[in-house]
Amino acid sequence: MLTGWEDIRTEVLRRISGREWLPGASIPTEEQLAETFGVARATVNRALRELAAEGVLERRRKAGTRVALHPVRKATLDIPVTRLEIEGRGQRYGYRLLLEAEDEPPPAIASRLGLAPGVRLLHLVCLHLADGRPALIEDRWLNPAVLPQKPDFHRQSANEWLLAHVPYTTGDIGFSAANATAEEARLLDVPQGAALFVLDRTTWEGDRPVTCVRLAHAPGYRMQTLI
Amino acid sequence: MLTGWEDIRTEVLRRISGREWLPGASIPTEEQLAETFGVARATVNRALRELAAEGVLERRRKAGTRVALHPVRKATLDIPVTRLEIEGRGQRYGYRLLLEAEDEPPPAIASRLGLAPGVRLLHLVCLHLADGRPALIEDRWLNPAVLPQKPDFHRQSANEWLLAHVPYTTGDIGFSAANATAEEARLLDVPQGAALFVLDRTTWEGDRPVTCVRLAHAPGYRMQTLI
What we know:
The first copy, chain A, is α+β, with helices and mostly antiparallel strands. Chain A has helices spanning 5-17, 30-37, 41-53, 82-88, 107-112, 158-165, 182-188; strands at 57-60, 64-67, 73-79, 93-103, 121-130, 133-142, 170-179, 195-205, 208-217, 222-226.
């Protein structure tokens, strides 16, 4: 018997993968499916919404629901605080602030934050360690206007401070690979040119730019999720 | 006036970021919030579910809903078919099959797929091109049991064939950085050691292993999403 929305989701996937419902084709209405499966319409609705969020179905007001022609697989990544990510692997966390200075950001960063030339930001560079070994370099430009009182960044990383004090930002995040510069190689204690996994992020709180950060991970790092 | 669930979500976020509701603290019940906001309980429920999915709230049966102590930011990534990703950037797509052979996979891959030693798989290596330039190398091990009839992999990449014929797989996906080997450097026409963004994926259809693939992207690639 199909009872929960998860069962309905599984049955819909079965019909699609069994090519009973073909890519691009319309599927029955929620009312029809509720009757077929003997469940409440809300249960069908929940299952179809999940499948639409996963990219399997396309839902259009009035036009009904279709099987996606080119399903785009979606993967959800957790982006935890660096300290918790390291401790979550069972490693001892360490942290060293390397630079704290007010400065004019490079044009590329000013432009990503939508700042006029000449605006000064707080520039923070720090090293996160796992079991005493360098794990990643955090290079951050921070809008001083978001700091109510100046935190002691020698004690707590901006990464962690921001999540506790300016937690609900919007923005964009990117993942790429880069060869370690001479400076990065020295800080991470790896050969120059080693391939680093880089996460960059620009965030806003409403209309106000908050921060632009680059996290360069030591070789061997792998970001993982289920699909 | 607060009317839709999006308004309720925004108001809940405002109370959390304004520290009216503190990290770790319980928030009022759905009934209480519905009365406060003058909306249906289902509307409050929808907003709280979204915030729980985003990691902002923690919901426990009986214990009620709390503000997360360490909110984990979640980012959703689209993993499209390589051809559509390249065409979506407005570039001309090209494809070259470099190897198609039945072979025993390396132990690491056999183990990821849960295969006994000695089982043979189809090994496919191909190059995807954007505007005639190498964009990424696809190195794939494929379970021949998922192929009803043998596709012509010279005409269509396994990447695309699988999505059309074995679309609803589960599995895991990882992202990392790697220095280009001599062979990868030759195929991508980049210096040996260049930093490549690597996506690896292992998928299953029910209990049956489907494929283990490594996509090594030419330097400059950036995978991006909104948070």
